[in-house]
Design a protein that fits this description.
Length: 355
């Protein structure tokens, strides 16, 4: 199941699209007046935001509407800021991971790498060109995520709180990304708790926690409810990442869009690997991970992960976290409509667990 299919489709999504379309129209006019190649970069950046499920914006809009919010234009503007943040983070994450494709097609860095190659650059120079363009584009998306919040039709105190939430999302994501980059330098795998903290920072805060809280803040919710939504978001987001790590090792690419052993090839430190490191099979797994992984090697690692019990433990961890998240919503100050509207997010995890 995709991260957008658990929430009902409404006209809210069209409102977010209209906000983004208007933004890019203005930005492209401005860029085109500066240089045609700069216009081209903005066109590539806009393409990065087209066709997605708008999951984070939909969390903002769903929470806002379920709490009785009526200024849908203001909500759509906040929602658009999270879509630009997401765009910035995935563009930069691809640079960090030295990836030039996403879902089987060239990403922004890949498009500029191809451009440089076509113009005669060496492979190394072409990769540098692609990564450089991606850094610039990601910076533009990030800066304008903040700009959206300055335009929200809300009182100054609310705009300040919304800005604080977006800042929290950026700071947490940067911390998680850094921990992810540095983790492979340690010869010993991280503990499960360390992996969960990294996942919370890198993904759960910006993808679940802060969009939920932003919608609630804009709707004027009590602080108690805002904090509960944040807790729910952090836990369900971490559960999603744990389940997604299973996809990175066992997934069917034709169903998930994610290479079935991509995380193994990249040596990613996940809960799955942490559990395996505690078992006798680890020595062989570590030996295989240290070499240039082939499909046959990956198949052997998967067998060892199953034999070690790591796969079953990871499945249980994701299920336990999901249950904990849903328990947060079962509190008297959480409106029933909001509880019913957000509970389907648990299907993100359970479907992912089917890999």
């Amino acid at each position: 199941m995709d991260m957008g299919t658990t929430l009902a489709h409404t006209d809210d999504g069209q409102l977010v699209n209209e906000v983004l379309d208007g933004f890019f129209t203005r930005a492209k006019v401005r860029a085109g007046a500066m240089h045609p190649q700069y216009l081209g970069l903005w066109e590539h950046l806009e393409a990065c935001t087209v066709g997605g499920k708008r999951f984070r914006p939909r969390l903002v809009m769903t929470t806002y509407s379920l709490l009785g919010g009526t200024n849908t234009t203001a909500a759509a503007t906040v929602a658009a800021s999270y879509e630009l943040l997401h765009t910035a983070l995935i563009i930069h994450d691809d640079v960090v991971d030295q990836d030039f494709t996403r879902r089987g097609v060239p990403n922004l860095a890949g498009a500029y790498r191809s451009l440089a190659t076509d113009q005669g650059s060496s492979p190394e120079k072409a990769e540098h060109t692609g990564a450089s363009a991606a850094v610039i584009a990601g910076d533009l998306a990030l800066a304008n995520a903040y700009r959206f919040l300055a335009e929200v039709d809300a009182d100054p105190a609310t705009r300040q709180r919304l800005g604080d939430l977006l800042d929290e999302a950026v700071v947490a994501s940067a911390a998680g990304e850094l921990l992810d980059v540095l983790a492979p330098l340690d010869p010993m795998p991280q503990t499960v708790d360390q992996v969960l903290e990294m996942s919370k920072l890198k993904t759960a805060v910006y993808s679940f926690d802060t969009p939920l809280r932003a919608g609630a803040v804009l709707a004027g919710a009590d602080q108690e409810l805002v904090e509960a939504l944040g807790e729910f978001g952090r836990i369900i987001g971490t559960a999603y990442q744990v389940a997604d790590d299973l996809v990175g090792a066992f997934g069917d690419e034709s169903r998930t869009g994610k290479t079935g052993w991509g995380d193994l090839r990249e040596g990613k430190r996940t809960a799955l690997i942490s559990y395996a490191a505690e078992q006798p099979q680890w020595n062989r797994i570590k030996e295989l991970l240290a070499q240039d992984l082939t499909a046959a090697d990956a198949a052997e690692i998967r067998e060892l992960l199953v034999a070690s019990g790591a796969r079953d433990k990871t499945l249980k961890l994701a299920a336990d976290l999901t249950e904990r998240a849903l328990d947060v919503l079962v509190q008297p100050f959480v409106p029933q409509a909001l509880r019913d509207g957000l509970s389907p997010l648990s299907r993100l995890v359970t479907d992912r667990m089917g890999v």
